[in-house]
Design a protein that fits this description.
The protein is α+β, with helices and mostly antiparallel strands. Helices cover 42% and strands 19% of the residues. Helix 3 runs parallel beside helix 4.
């Protein structure tokens, strides 16, 4: 039986065939659980995670707590990862939505990162 998550994983595999992160332009990968959202900036050449953030990050815990819904939490996480990326010298990324639709929390995260200065 094919369920929603299996379809998402098939889409993710298809997307990952085309998207690849380099040291100059790393991949920004998103994972969305039922209640939280996670994002990593990954260099696929070395296979290393350069930066990561989530709605559980201690630095933004207060802002996430005050956000009115999960979409607002996504925007907060996006802005935070964008600021961290700029501090570490990353100006451009390749956005990997992880098989999720570019909608809701995933879109809010992407727009939050763009708002803080990251280019996709």
């Amino acid at each position: 039986m094919i369920n929603k998550n299996t379809k998402r994983l098939q889409k993710k595999k298809s997307i990952r065939k085309k998207i690849f992160g380099t040291p100059e332009k790393p991949r920004m990968a998103v994972f969305r659980s039922l209640t939280k959202i996670y994002v990593q900036i990954i260099d696929d050449v070395e296979g290393k995670t350069l930066l990561s953030a989530s709605s559980l990050s201690k630095e933004i815990a207060e802002e996430v707590k005050n956000a009115k819904d999960k979409t607002a939490q996504g925007a907060v996480v996006g802005e935070f990862i964008g600021k961290k990326a700029l501090e570490s010298g990353i100006k451009e990324v390749v956005f990997d939505r992880g098989g999720y639709r570019y909608h809701g929390r995933v879109r809010a995260l992407a727009e939050g990162a763009r708002k803080s200065g990251i280019k996709f």
